[in-house]
## 1
Amino acid sequence: MSRRFVSQIGPQESIDQIFLVSDKQLRPNRSGNLYLQLELSDRTGSVGARMWNANEKINGSFENGDYARVEGSTQLFQGAIQMIVTRISRVESSEVNEDEFQPLTRTEVDRLVLRLGEMLRGMNDLALRNLAECFLMDDPFMAKFSRAPAGVKNHHAYIGGLLEHTVKLMEVVGRLAPCYPELDRDLLLTGAFLHDVGKIDELSYDHGFSYSDEGQLVGHLVMAVRLLDDKVAEAERLAGEPFPRETVLRLKHMLVSHHGEYEFGSPKLPMTLEAVALAFLDNLDAKLASFSQQLRDDPNVDSHWTAYNANLRRKLFKGTHAGDGAVVEAGDEK
Amino acid sequence: MSRRFVSQIGPQESIDQIFLVSDKQLRPNRSGNLYLQLELSDRTGSVGARMWNANEKINGSFENGDYARVEGSTQLFQGAIQMIVTRISRVESSEVNEDEFQPLTRTEVDRLVLRLGEMLRGMNDLALRNLAECFLMDDPFMAKFSRAPAGVKNHHAYIGGLLEHTVKLMEVVGRLAPCYPELDRDLLLTGAFLHDVGKIDELSYDHGFSYSDEGQLVGHLVMAVRLLDDKVAEAERLAGEPFPRETVLRLKHMLVSHHGEYEFGSPKLPMTLEAVALAFLDNLDAKLASFSQQLRDDPNVDSHWTAYNANLRRKLFKGTHAGDGAVVEAGDEK
Amino acid sequence: MSRRFVSQIGPQESIDQIFLVSDKQLRPNRSGNLYLQLELSDRTGSVGARMWNANEKINGSFENGDYARVEGSTQLFQGAIQMIVTRISRVESSEVNEDEFQPLTRTEVDRLVLRLGEMLRGMNDLALRNLAECFLMDDPFMAKFSRAPAGVKNHHAYIGGLLEHTVKLMEVVGRLAPCYPELDRDLLLTGAFLHDVGKIDELSYDHGFSYSDEGQLVGHLVMAVRLLDDKVAEAERLAGEPFPRETVLRLKHMLVSHHGEYEFGSPKLPMTLEAVALAFLDNLDAKLASFSQQLRDDPNVDSHWTAYNANLRRKLFKGTHAGDGAVVEAGDEK
Amino acid sequence: MSRRFVSQIGPQESIDQIFLVSDKQLRPNRSGNLYLQLELSDRTGSVGARMWNANEKINGSFENGDYARVEGSTQLFQGAIQMIVTRISRVESSEVNEDEFQPLTRTEVDRLVLRLGEMLRGMNDLALRNLAECFLMDDPFMAKFSRAPAGVKNHHAYIGGLLEHTVKLMEVVGRLAPCYPELDRDLLLTGAFLHDVGKIDELSYDHGFSYSDEGQLVGHLVMAVRLLDDKVAEAERLAGEPFPRETVLRLKHMLVSHHGEYEFGSPKLPMTLEAVALAFLDNLDAKLASFSQQLRDDPNVDSHWTAYNANLRRKLFKGTHAGDGAVVEAGDEK
Amino acid sequence: MSRRFVSQIGPQESIDQIFLVSDKQLRPNRSGNLYLQLELSDRTGSVGARMWNANEKINGSFENGDYARVEGSTQLFQGAIQMIVTRISRVESSEVNEDEFQPLTRTEVDRLVLRLGEMLRGMNDLALRNLAECFLMDDPFMAKFSRAPAGVKNHHAYIGGLLEHTVKLMEVVGRLAPCYPELDRDLLLTGAFLHDVGKIDELSYDHGFSYSDEGQLVGHLVMAVRLLDDKVAEAERLAGEPFPRETVLRLKHMLVSHHGEYEFGSPKLPMTLEAVALAFLDNLDAKLASFSQQLRDDPNVDSHWTAYNANLRRKLFKGTHAGDGAVVEAGDEK
Amino acid sequence: MSRRFVSQIGPQESIDQIFLVSDKQLRPNRSGNLYLQLELSDRTGSVGARMWNANEKINGSFENGDYARVEGSTQLFQGAIQMIVTRISRVESSEVNEDEFQPLTRTEVDRLVLRLGEMLRGMNDLALRNLAECFLMDDPFMAKFSRAPAGVKNHHAYIGGLLEHTVKLMEVVGRLAPCYPELDRDLLLTGAFLHDVGKIDELSYDHGFSYSDEGQLVGHLVMAVRLLDDKVAEAERLAGEPFPRETVLRLKHMLVSHHGEYEFGSPKLPMTLEAVALAFLDNLDAKLASFSQQLRDDPNVDSHWTAYNANLRRKLFKGTHAGDGAVVEAGDEK
């Protein structure tokens, strides 16, 4: 039987299928009875769930990041769908079709890797092209790079998210460069490729997403510098001549300054044209991804506005037609 | 005799030609004698000048924003060229070829106006196209819009600067839009067109550049809203049907929020995807223009770095080859 | 039977009367059962209420902003009165005496409108008096202006609140002006009249209070400018001569700068004496209203201090006698 | 011969009369010759002056805060009057009519002291009236209090300035109180009287104005608390009964919180209605005094705007007629 | 039977012993039934507790700060121990061994008092030694000083905490001083002794910990100045000669500036070497105490990281071995 | 003839000896004549100097960082000594006794290096001791490390300044550690040793002091990480076993977080006890060094206060005796 995706599920449905589990918590209600609160997701989104009368044994039978078969039914609370779980059991990842659970299919990931190579190998700057090649031909690196998410919970927080964000940013650079001839296009393209490369070790993403200890204590801005140093040394070995000093400096500067402001964790402010452009475009891409997701996922179906987001210090405008169609769709679901 | 442009002038040259005057000040030296300090410019840049033994009569014989014939010679002080003026007299603007004094020639301005119309008339959204047409066919508006600078002293502070900045921003929008299908391209394009439209009355640019009283007291973000309201009313008259309410709201929101943060004078934070994108891209374009100009005009010829800029809280990196060529050029000038 | 006002209700009372409903929410408890949480108010204050074993049908039978007959009883929790509702049903507004539910009675509103006219018509400046008259004789405007609240939840958030806040501010201006002869009294008085005039459309107050879409996207500071422009045009038509340009500029400046700081949404800082005075006095009136209300409504009856207010980053001091009388009153209620 | 006041002096005048000296500096010009730079003032304002070919002996013959007979002539530089001094010699203060040099005459000071007593003795609160009496009958205190300036260089920086600012603030409180019945009028009045009382020792004003060491190290907010403690003890001795504890606390709180924000040196935020009102009204009075002075003294006669004030982060609008009359007056001076 | 300390209690234990009670709240659960939520502590830590089916009578039978005999059992929720209380009754403090409930035993307090006297009497500066003696021989002062906590809930929030923090800081000063001969060791030592002395009246600690009204309205920085003034007067009486003026000023300055920044409630920034050193060392000691406590008490046993602390805007790193041993211990408890 | 040190030079002296040159500028005076402005220093301080009637040839005959023989005389301007130079010529560094020009003599540097080794080799932690040894036995590293300044113009800006600051900080750590047993003393000691190690390449100090390009673009916090990585690898080679992972992480974290706040360029906030302690102690040492220097060098001899320091947003208190002795000394100099 074909899957009913999260984005299709309405209220008052019976459910019996596999989900990816996260944010699991065993909590007492106010009568002292335990219940399980968790998040169930597939590639189209996630839905909150509760299992009443849970206990430590059920809680211990699966972990965040596991797949689980879930039985139960849905209801509408506070304008949002919630699932009441009656049964839940762990499922081996070998038994599921992972493409149903990751926003990016393997085919899409393959396409993005191809495009990445194409753009990097199309650069005119020989030194940068050689440097890029050292990354591209490093299989363990590429395996991590095409699997890492770009974050733990904000934008692009899914397997392949780092790759998708990187390639998107490089596309943007490629399109914008002709408008600004004063920018060194190849330098900016390489900076876009490498800006978040430290995330392959900053994040841990084998089983659920989290920061690694090194990620939290040192950070991807600093960790990327070592990755770059190693590949520059390799590029020099292969080319048999020194890599241009200034180019390395400019690349490192882009890595350590790409958050744009001290308060966002940049130890340096952007001081070259390419570093300024990278910081802005990276921020724009992240903001558009995050705003889009909020507009898409906002549970507040009756309002023209999303719920207030304290981080952004604002609500977002969904438009005067928000909610109109929603009523109809809700009817359709029955 | 062909003009020796500011960008070509070296030390120890005799000068006798016309310049545009600005920043004029009559000041006493410490012996109580008066001297005139002023800035002389043409389309390629500006140079500081001093006329010793000046008096109130000379000072009163021309104004900032005037053209003047200047005789004198140049010297090198603190790494920068300075002109010592021995004679100066006002020249009618009818006697000069203004193309030598404006970064944008009339031909370039005409080309930009054409491109503006082309992009606006190429939009798919009928209502927005009609609205744009109301602006394009308003000759007094277009005369101001293609003459206004984009600022008084930062980026694009020259005749036609507003038009150039606007068209550049629209080009960027056009190129970026395919990367972000969630953006309403035509809405963003119209927002880019109108975002700084209030500057046609915020600034005063008939004789030198300054803020108008209304510009300082009310500001171009608010002034633009009235211009938009008037044209929407006109578009409704011409079309014989109401302009979509939500579209007007979204446009107004882009106008009042495009500085992106409260501290930069936006009374509202961007709360739609298009408003966020507009604020970022406008800021990026302004920053690249202003950084490029600083890198180009930095007087500090011996250093890899520009002078410290207190506004930006940083120096900019000119590169390790900065100054190398400068020595040679300085030799050439003798 | 005469009404028992919210301010008179104690614990352990049986209740059966009409209230105004707001902040309604249908929520599941931790056993998955639904309950209704709501706020019940009349002109003397509001009280939190819960209805156990609610469902979507009850929830759908009335809206925020409706009047409802409520049966139930009160109890004391965490030092505050809470109502447990057993029955609730919608009542037509035609069946209630609205004066019992609005802090301002119609008589009080009428008196405020009279006082407003009196002060405006008493100004010496002919142009400003004419301008004011254009507002006063605009019936639809006056209807909205005397009905709008001054906010959604902070100070003066009730029908007529905008009018009351405005007239109070004008009284303050009238009293203060003799102390500061350097202030243009009539200009400041007109500024006080118009400073929040944009709120008539920024807020939506026919059924509960909220921001309109235009209110959130554009804001009352900007919206007021158009209202002013329209009336200036009308005043010019009526007077047959141009309205003084500088006076309009000074008024607009007061409108757009009256929040006093960029971070509070002013696109301009106050740059005239009258604009500075307006921003301070408006802020003082709002702060006194809001502090008074917190001191009055603080539920924490045992303490000399109100609860910590995160917005204000402080607690307020109620005095060392706070709580003393409260015990006696609580006894009285039984 | 009657005095030519600073406010009347124009360019190209010969001067021979007495001024008050401040901001004296002996400096080398760039040829290594010494000149004296100083500020000359009387009750109507101050004018910059320079004496060429000065030396250490002349420099040592008088101090800041001295009166001096000055001979020389005036000229117009950068839109401002400057005096070129040819002779200068110290004059005993016994030889001058101090009323010509202080913005407040002795008669005005006497009137302010009377008014202060009138308002304090008119309070209804017996305890506060007794406390106030303890201050009023303390002659050394009153001598200092009616002589101290309110600041070193900003608002009310002249002999009697503290008294004038205090009485003005109390007048404002008296007028405003009827609008806000929730305020304790007498408490607020006493707070207004005492808020800056610590300045009598924070500042040093016997010879020019400066901060005392204690003023800079401890500050008038803290110093005022001890003055209050002493007088409360005295009031208790005189009344033979304890002063109400809570009233003392509320007064102290007003003293230590009246700068309104931590960043302005308040160790506490205002947490009572009277403390909030005091902080706002004090700030308003200071801002109006300082803005008025800037508008009045702005040297930039040709502009509608004052020079940019970095502290206020803004220019002030002088009006569109600024400069019109100035030209005529300048002509009158010859 | 010997006490089972909080630090030793595991899940699934039966408990019947005395605790110190704080943070008591009577709250309704979502079915409208009341329960009691409270914090139970002894000298080794505190544990959250709930008593289901509570009522106002039980709630009224004891207060925060009381000792109570508690019967019930423990369970593990969300990684933390929680106690379910079945019976609770107040116990007189005379019946308990207070050393089991205070982090500092009386012996430890006595030792700290001795050490305090030793360090103060060992100073070389005669005036400061005399001043210190006036504090040391004031028995009521010393009783309060050795009993007061250093805070309400952050660092050193226990009986004797102020003394412990003060002596620790003085030890640090004593050890550091030889490294910085430019510091006046005795002045800094006296400043360290007195910096928080105002807390003896700022806090109320007879029954639970809270701020006194004066503490909240005036603050310990200002309150300490009066304590100092009184003792200086006494020292002058005893010595029969004036106390050095500058030394008093420098001490007062240290008291009012020791929070280091305006935003932390210092009305003055540190402007002497000793004031700077005091502010830094006080802050360091407080931070180390608070970080250590968080690392020790973090309930999140499975993680290398503490929970996110919003005040500090960070998590703390517990180390990669955190949680390893915890599992074993949990097993031991059964 | 023995040297007259800068600290001994008074007004009206004839001078003919060698100085270290910095801050050289060729500038026009207001008559268009060139003069040379420069700073002359030895190990005891620096003095401003001017050479009138200079030219480009003289200006080109020596560089900042050179030694030069200077003839001229001193005068007192604005309370400070200034030198008027009549002759200046470059001197080879081989001809001077460098100990007269560097605050630290070679003997002092040698002593500091010894002490550094002693402390590092005295650590109990074997892994850290091995790591330290890898630094200590790296001669080129130690040569740089004992020569680098700690800054370009603030604290410890002299040859050997980095070493002196580092050893001082380690001494402080050694003394403080026994007070805080919760700190890992050896880890903190190693962190203190390495915290500024990146400055050996961040700064350029062969000829005058400045930031290297890499220093400005990448920064010493990031550069230090690579130095650490290299030595850890070496330590592993030598020990034949892996260096403890967690120790490396903790060290790196201390390096990247030691500025303590984002706004000071730390990409991470301190999240371990040792990182917090390091950030505080480093800051304290830097502040005491910088405050001491300001108190010592303040040119304002007549005042109890230093000049206002905009960076610190304060003046510093020199004491009430400041200036008293200065008058006498000035008399002595004649």
## 2
Amino acid sequence: MGRTPPHPQVSQFDLQQVLEALVDPVRRSIVTRLVTSGEDLKCGAFDMPVSKSTATHHFKVLREAGLIRQYYVGTSRMNSLRRTEMDEAFPGLLDVLTRAVSAPS
Amino acid sequence: MGRTPPHPQVSQFDLQQVLEALVDPVRRSIVTRLVTSGEDLKCGAFDMPVSKSTATHHFKVLREAGLIRQYYVGTSRMNSLRRTEMDEAFPGLLDVLTRAVSAPS
């Protein structure tokens, strides 16, 4: 699959890079959506207040930080949360940030 | 104490603001130092690779996000981690970030 973009291994995960990815509200909303949906979603399934090229950039930043895995199904680029690997590298981080985001008041 | 700078209440804590404070490595190192020392520290006690005015700015960002409380003892500005309040607002966040920072390898 020459179209599958590169992904970092867990040993390459970097807290600074992960925080820089998650400090952006739009990118955090993508991760929260993947956490709450519990399934892989194509890029078009996210309702984002940004242009398509900006959205593509956001997915790329998340992928390069190790937060999501991207792969193709036909012409759709799918996004999968790398939950197990992120929990291995930074236990609790995803829980904390998605709980804080989705907590009612 | 007219010299005591303003501090947000817990109800005013904002995850976005807290993440923007903690995404900076120098500011994260200040918080980690306070976590590991377990006591209040004056600004001069932190070994930071930045100018004094930049350091003052970093402390201000942390204070305005609710991460630290600042007060004077004589001419020294002291810094206290607002651990209880931060844990109340965002349970686990400080644990996750300081554990990740201080973890061996």
## 3
Amino acid sequence: MYQLLNDLSIVEVSSFVASPTAGLYCAQMGAEVIRVDHVAGGLDYDRFMLTEEGRSLSWENLNRAKKSVALDLRSGEGRELCAQLAGQTGQCITNLPERSFLGHAAMQAHRPDNRTDMISVRIMGWHDGRQAMDFTVNAASGYPLMGGPEDWDPDTAPPVNQILPAWDFITGAYCAFALMAALRHRDATGEGSELRVPLGDVAIGTVANSGMMAEMLYRGGDRERLGNAIWGAFGRDFRSKDGVRFMVAALTAKQWAGLVEAFNLGEAIGSLEKELGVDFSAGDEPRFTHRHRLFDLFQNVASGLKYAKLEKRMAAAGTTFEKYRTAHEAAQDPQLVGDNPLFGPSPANPSGFGYPAPRSFANIPEREAGDPAPAPYLGQHSEEVLAERLGLGSGSIGDLIDRGIVRTSDKNNR
Amino acid sequence: MYQLLNDLSIVEVSSFVASPTAGLYCAQMGAEVIRVDHVAGGLDYDRFMLTEEGRSLSWENLNRAKKSVALDLRSGEGRELCAQLAGQTGQCITNLPERSFLGHAAMQAHRPDNRTDMISVRIMGWHDGRQAMDFTVNAASGYPLMGGPEDWDPDTAPPVNQILPAWDFITGAYCAFALMAALRHRDATGEGSELRVPLGDVAIGTVANSGMMAEMLYRGGDRERLGNAIWGAFGRDFRSKDGVRFMVAALTAKQWAGLVEAFNLGEAIGSLEKELGVDFSAGDEPRFTHRHRLFDLFQNVASGLKYAKLEKRMAAAGTTFEKYRTAHEAAQDPQLVGDNPLFGPSPANPSGFGYPAPRSFANIPEREAGDPAPAPYLGQHSEEVLAERLGLGSGSIGDLIDRGIVRTSDKNNR
């Protein structure tokens, strides 16, 4: 972990993917991130996949490098401790509703010296309070009805859901940014901020930011189904003689020239240009417009060559391409994982299972990257955090534990 | 635009989606973001869709609320001006290679008073320098080979590319966060940072963070194809009697209870529980394991009811659901756009076309949101920025314009 944020403590009261991701990115940059959960674990504590011993591989990756405090969040006393922790710390990421025990004002009330400088980042469903999750906002976005093979009948084609919970991950990264922006503003002015980030707004807002909303309104209808082709440029999947599937993209003049060279198609494309009266090196437009003619030429060459040969030629010509991997293949790929400095040695994960652990996406050549840290056991830091943050003595903490308001590490009782 | 970052200026030398997005998020929070492009426009200046007059709807959305400086970036003089602008400003987002005129050291060399506090965020392809773009890193991630209908033969099923360039958008948001983290560190220590964020690392790192990499290694193979079902929980698309497709999800006990109530399936599910010897309210596991039996029950009810009726019942029962929209339907949906405070009135876009414009994803109830600003014309702020940032007089700027090193607004010559 880099130590860019080592002066920062954040309380995270969260579950599922988006809010834990926001905390994860901060933790991987050196922040102290204290995840507070219900004593039995949050709603995501048993998220698939589980090991035979019942440890969630999802949870232990999304909560890497954090501390864990376990409180009885169904009791008034546990809830009060949680709000106190957030308020005393001063910055909180949560996906609890505003109308819960963790509303902004409740945290604000616990700021020391009556300061009004609390910063909260709250992930919501839809802006109007309706529930949502990644798959439901995605249904509204328009993307699932654009996916799938090009030859599907538009009138009967089913939606194709994304497997990647992309809206969760965009929202998580955005919330980490929004928290930092609010901290910067507080450093300059002393003012706190209450930030609300609806998952649904990230989705429909991205539809707008990408230009797709303007496009649909401008054309007055939907875009044609493109299958695996890239919209407005040259790119698609191809298949080699030996059945290897790979993606190819050419968005710039240089990429296009390299691709034509790798496939040795200079002459054939010259003829096609003459036939159609276009210049394919002039930009995206002719390559996209006549993509089916071009796809045929490229697939024809691919069908005659083994992937190893094609790969060599594409690499030599500076083509932008990539072989499709299954997820299991990707996990074992030396280029992606084994030889990639993004990954460090496996720390002692709660599951006891060892595997490559990622550092922060950002690497900083001049700084020490450090080794990845494991996720905590649930409640592992309850005593430490309550003592440090709230100044509770060992007697008070012992009493809270005895009464079930606080729980300590579940290392041996899972 | 909120004014959380109104003390911050950022130079952005970028193209396509990821790097412009990082600048966009900062601009929507009030930062001055100066996008510097080649005089003819960056590689993305003509990205689809184009209006009849040749204005890119993609570009004008991804570059909203920024300033534009146009320099001849093929000339030594233009490149020097660009590096000077970045260095004098102190923070830069770029997707140019490190071995270009905009390497970190080149910007650092222009810091005032020989300060060594430059912050650069550089978006790369793969960590090892290989070229990549959203669709190619996605091919490597494993997701495209998991997508598509459940009944496809795993041995012959084609990959299904995501239409959403999710890796670009995650990378953009992450880079905005990374920039803020580095600024915070500089505020505390005076030290600069050189951050490199490979698009490929965001992809394979997300595969790891999500727990999917650990899952595949733990199971020693690939996950079964799920079609539109949610992994490890209850959720899928259904179709009403009148042909409306909608997504339903139940991840919590409350969501499950609401869903069963909305579909009036208490009795049938009770019988199924007895038959299978399971308790579906106990958690994700039984609901996921027996999903096909459950899907049949729910689809059977859906097939007998019109969507309007189903929707009413699901809303009343607090179910998490959403109707699929096409992108054109989404763009015109009052709930998503028209009545959503995320969107403001259309500013005067370079295209001349008017449509709803998004604010920042984060809303801050106590602050003034302001109206969305338009993207600039290419070169619109060349003179202003060169005068303010580099202290150039009108004579020097006039000379640079005369010699084609600097270009002013392309409002009337596009």
